[in-house]
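pinned: reference chain
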Amino acid sequence: MEYTVQKLAELAGVSARTIRYYDEIGILKPAEISSSGYRKYGREEVEILQQILFYRELGDSLEKIKLIITSPTFDALAALKTHHDQLLEKRKQLDLLIANVKKTIASAERGIKMTDQEKFEGFKTKLIEENEKNYGEEVRKKFGDQAVDRSNQKIKGITQEQYEVVTKLADEILETLYAAYQTGDPSSDLAQKTADLHRQWLSFYWDVYTKEAHVGIVQMYVSDERFKDYYDKGQPGAAEFLRDAVLTYTGMNI
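pinned: its C-alpha cells
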C-alpha cells in the first residue's frame, strides 16, 4: 500500500510535520516523490517509521536512532526482539509504579501503613534501570559485575530520606563544581569540598568506598564522552577539573 505524508502520519499517530522533519534529517526518506512534488511511502518506510517510534518511546535521541537504523549492519528483526525485551522491562517498571500509587491511595483512604521502602520501590527500580541503560556496560567492564550488583542491591534498600539526600547531593555537586572551576585550582577549598561531596554521593551507591575506586570513577568521567558531557554541560572542562580535585582529595595526584 502507498501512503502520502498525511496518511502515514494518521496511520502512525504522529503529525505530518514530524514525517516531513524525519525526511529533512535523513532518517525516513520517502520511497519516491511524485512529479507534482508529493512524498510517497511504502511498506519498507512504514517498518522504518515503526522502528523510529519504538526507539523514541524508549527515550533514544533522533541522532542515535539515525546512526542505528542507517547502519549497514542494522538487523530489523533483532531490533524488534530488543524492543520487545525493553518494553517488557518498561511495563514492569510501570506495574511497580501503579502498584505503588494504589498502595498510597489505600494508605490514605483506609489507614493502611506503607513502609518507606514500599513508597519508593518503583522509583528506585527506575533509577537502577536508567543507570544500567546509560552506563551499565562501561561501569561493569571497569569494576566488575559483582560490584555493580552489590550497588544495585544497596539502592533497593535506601529509605525515603536517603533517596532525597542523594538526589540533592547530585545537584549540589554540580553547583559546587562549577563554582570551584572558576577558581582554576583543583586543590582549593571549594574544589576539595566538591570532591568530598562526590565521595558522599558515591557512598550511597557503594557498599565500600576506596580511594582507588573513586579515582577510577572520575577518570572514567573524562575518558567516556557520555559522562564527560554530563559534567561539562554547564561548564566545559568541569569533568577534568573534578578528576584533578579528586586526585588531590585522595592523595593520589600524580
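why pinned: The radius of gyration is 23 Å. The beta strands are 32-33, 39-40.
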